[in-house]
């Protein structure tokens, strides 16, 4: 049995989430159905992490154990031939036998996109969040800096969580970018792992800072409180992207190249 891994891109607009579920259309369900059509194997595909309904991905990673002898290029083409148009396999490689898309990951990078123009773009309505109020980007960046390091993020997840809520944040920043000639604001956050709704709650809190409804220096107090009610709103799902997942260099064919290298997101 080989352990085959792949990098997946999808538009989350019409998916009920990434993980398989009894009711609703999931990315995992689409991948597993395509895999069975291609190989005649009914296998469970392991995803690197769960994304909510409406959340997009450029660098979701999955793995499956298989007896297929199909070449990797054929697997990629074959899966894409059977996948719906809002999902695609970008890369396929063989990982070592111990590789697990979720448990082997050491870093995950997310990006949240904000359109701060007066008028929302109809072309981007399902892929960026429109915030027409003026935003203080300097204050937002100051707030994000407080997140870097090892913290208890209980205040920035759902009300009840099983297990530890401590995570290590490696990157938290915002920068101006452009897509289709339109200026956008990108909020980038990277950590060893994320709690449910954590990035969306970070984005919602930082946007309140940008709107002048919260001071940047309030972030340490919010983290220390461990109280979800102290933080900002949960930002809408459709502005969020899973950009890349990083693995140790001894995880088989190593990690896929950084998904951010070749796209403007």
Description:
41% of the residues are buried. A hairpin with an 8-residue loop joins strand 2 and strand 3 (56-66). The chain is globular. Helix 3 (137-145) packs across helix 4. Strands 1, 2, 3, 4, 5, 6, 7, 8, 9 and 10 form a 10-stranded mixed sheet that branches. It starts with a strand and ends in a 19-residue tail after the last strand. It has 2 domains: 2-104, Pseudouridine synthase I, catalytic domain, N-terminal subdomain (Alpha-Beta Plaits, 2-Layer Sandwich), CATH 3.30.70.580; 107-242, 2-Layer Sandwich (Alpha-Beta Plaits). The chain has 265 residues and is of the alpha+beta class. The protein has helices at 27-39, 72-82, 137-145, 198-210, 218-225, and strands spanning 2-10, 46-47, 56-66, 87-95, 107-115, 129-130, 149-152, 166-179, 182-191, 240-246.
Summarize the structure.
The protein has 265 residues and is an alpha+beta fold. The protein has two domains: 2-104, Pseudouridine synthase I, catalytic domain, N-terminal subdomain (Alpha-Beta Plaits, 2-Layer Sandwich); 107-242, 2-Layer Sandwich (Alpha-Beta Plaits). The protein has helices at residues 27-39, 72-82, 137-145, 198-210, 218-225, and strands spanning 2-10, 46-47, 56-66, 87-95, 107-115, 129-130, 149-152, 166-179, 182-191, 240-246.
Largest sheet: 10 strands, mixed
Q: Beta-strand percentage?
A: 25-35%
Distance between the termini: 37 Å
Order of helices and strands: EHEEHEEEHEEEHHE
In CATH terms, what is the fold-level topology of the largest domain?
Answer: Alpha-Beta Plaits
Quantity of strands, as a count: 10
From the spread of the alpha carbons, the general shape counts as globular
Alpha carbon gyration radius:
19 Å
CATH architecture grouping of the largest domain: 2-Layer Sandwich
Which structural class should the secondary elements be placed in?
alpha+beta
Which regions are unreliable across 5 or more consecutive residues at pLDDT < 50? 254-265
Q: Count of helical segments?
A: 5
Question: Which oligomeric form is depicted?
Answer: single chain
The residue fraction in helices comes out at 10-25%
User: How many domains make up the coordinates?
Assistant: 2
- The CATH superfamily of the largest domain is known as Pseudouridine synthase I, catalytic domain, C-terminal subdomain
Task: Report the top-level CATH class of the largest domain.
Answer: Alpha Beta
Mean pLDDT over the full residue set:
92
